[in-house]
Specification:
The protein is an all-alpha fold. It has a domain of 36 residues. Helix content is 73%, strand content 0%. The chain is built from 2 helices and no strands. It starts with a helix and ends with a helix.
């Protein structure tokens, strides 16, 4: 005897909501990061080099 499809509807709803919430969180993080992909495993070296690069860029553009 098979499983009636009515029993699977709540599972489909839960699975669908997990997918929707995951996609929404991904989109929000993408928008918060200025439209770029998120960075993973950012350590002290990466943070230091990024801040150094941004300081050099602002200093260079400020001088004209």
């Amino acid at each position: 005897m098979g499983v009636p499809f009515e029993a699977l509807i709540p599972y489909a709803i839960c699975l669908g909501m997990f997918g929707v919430s995951g996609a929404a969180l991904s989109k929000i993080r993408h928008m918060q990061n200025g439209g770029k992909r998120g960075r993973h495993s950012v350590d002290q070296w990466d943070r230091q080099s990024r801040s150094s690069s941004s300081r050099l860029i602002t200093k260079h553009t400020a001088n004209g």
